[in-house]
Amino acid sequence: MKIEILGTGCAKCIALEDAVKQAVAKIGGFHSIQKVEDIMKIMDYGVVSTPGLVIDGVVKSTGKLLSVDEIVDIIKA
Description:
It is a single chain. This protein is α+β, with helices and mostly antiparallel strands. The protein has one domain: Glutaredoxin. Helix content is 42%, strand content 25%. It has a 4-stranded mixed beta sheet with strand order 2-1-3-4. The model has no long low-confidence stretch (mean pLDDT 94).
């Protein structure tokens, strides 16, 4: 599973990256986590409000900081 965190480095973006890492550690398995900071790549997803969470190329969340449990639920869905 490819997980991307979209954001330019704001505090919420950094916090979402940490939460994603905790969620992946909690559920186990192999998951690729990438931080996307290039504004053009972020815009390619149609995201106008960061942080964004993309799983396997599908935007799952934008503009809010998700909890670890919310991320686990999204990954398992």
